[in-house]
Amino acid sequence: MFICVSTFYKVRINLLYKTIFFNVCDSAQLGDPCNIKSTQLALEGRGNRAPTNQDGARKLGTEMSQEREGKYGRELDVAVQAIQLACVLSQRVQERLLDNEEVAGSKNDESLVTVADWGVQAVVTWVLSQAFNEEEIPMVAEEDTRDLRGMEGMAMLRKVVHAVNECLMESSVMGIVPPRQPLGTIDVLKAINRGTTKGGPVGRHWVLDPIDGTLGFVRGDQYAIALAMVENGEVVLGVLGCPNLPLRSEWLNYHHRYYRVASKLFPPSPGVWHKGCVMSAQRAGQAWMQPMIFDGTTFRQSVAPQLVSVSGIVDPAQARFCEPVEKSNSSHSFTAGLADTLGLRKQPLRVYSMAKYAAVARGDAEIFMKFARAGYKEKIWDHAAGVLIVQEAGGVVTDAGGRPLDFSKGRRLEGLDRGIIACSGKKLHSKIIEAVDASWNSSTL
Ligand SMILES: Nc1ncnc2c1ncn2[C@@H]1O[C@H](COP(=O)(O)O)[C@@H](OP(=O)(O)O)[C@H]1O
Ligand SMILES: [Mg+2]
């Protein structure tokens, strides 16, 4: 009893300390919290207003879409717009879930699902179809409409259609022309169903995880919206929307709930970019980061994306590794053994979703490792965008045998050797591969 009470107070005091710390940091110059090359971080005096007219709103999107060059520049622009818009939907749904105005459902396979999983898939597919004038955008995506059928699915479907239309009506803020009239139920179902493409080694297709880390999403923690384009089996473009990713990496140690409490108690100065980003990259290009246009309550003006790069740390004692929160998704005991062998002294950062790839790409952590149980087949939408962003930020991503991940085999990452290792540099990476080889046979995996 005494232990429980004292632990409770310790947590409270810790939280209070963090809260004060957060407030002090935020009211100060933001500096360079995450290895961003350009330093235009604070957005004070730059909007923070709800758009009042469509012309003004369109201008925001136009500025945003003038940034990219390169072979996939146009596709990247559209993909970033689609993700910015999808993040409006997801942030609203997450707030409703946390305020108990909405509840998560479960799919036939008993995995969690929310209005946002289907809603984001519909919104992103709709935006891509409009931009590229293609009725049938080839899309490999996580969701389908099976669980929206029949009487059981009807209530959820109604909510999805509502969320999609609510979101699309605001699309002009992102420079996207909204639909002339609200989408009907059939339009929404069709948009979601486009995600059933098989993928494979030939031609172009998009790859989407509408809400990656659904468990984190439902718990009010980290999640990501991940969109990639695969051309002839290679990922050539990737965009990751991470609405809750704090700009200060030390906050990744805590559940986002604390961050929400802290920022409610001591709201950061208006317009200051303190959390949420969209990261993007194209092959043979660079990796970029920009703030969310919608920060959960207000829209702000878009700013030019900034280059990001991986950390330069090579000493394992200084390096930080991240891994899934759920030990059922990746063996914590195996990575703890590896950390010991490698001399990684820092506590692992346990983060939901592909936000872990974002953390490595922008230098918050040096390593991301995932070792799923034997027999689990990784899906391409859980990795495509994140892998490219880490690579273009200067990092290395392979399976545990040191081979590149193969996105050419359809919806799953076939032939994956043991696990996935994303790393800021080759030296750390090869040390990890050696350590995996040395300890694999004695592991229970
Ligand atoms: N048993 C398992 N082993 C490994 N990964 C799993 C898993 N079950 C689900 N996943 C994947 O892990 C993702 C979450 O990653 P993380 O654990 O890093 O937050 C899930 O994405 P979704 O939430 O999109 O379904 C899902 O694809
Ligand atoms: Mg996922």
TrEMBL record:
InterPro entries: DPNP (IPR006239), Inositol_monoP_metal-BS (IPR020583), Inositol_monoP_superfamily (IPR051090), Inositol_monophosphatase-like (IPR000760), Inositol_monophosphatase_CS (IPR020550). Keywords: Hydrolase, Magnesium, Metal-binding. SUPFAM superfamilies: Carbohydrate phosphatase. It is an enzyme of class 3 (hydrolase). Its EC number is 3.1.3.7. Its cofactor is Mg(2+). It comes from the Eukaryota. CDD domains: PAP_phosphatase. It catalyses: 3'-phosphoadenylyl sulfate + H2O = adenosine 5'-phosphosulfate + phosphate; adenosine 3',5'-bisphosphate + H2O = AMP + phosphate. Belongs to the inositol monophosphatase superfamily. PANTHER family: 3'(2'),5'-BISPHOSPHATE NUCLEOTIDASE (PTHR43200:SF17), PHOSPHATASE (PTHR43200). This is 3'(2'),5'-bisphosphate nucleotidase.
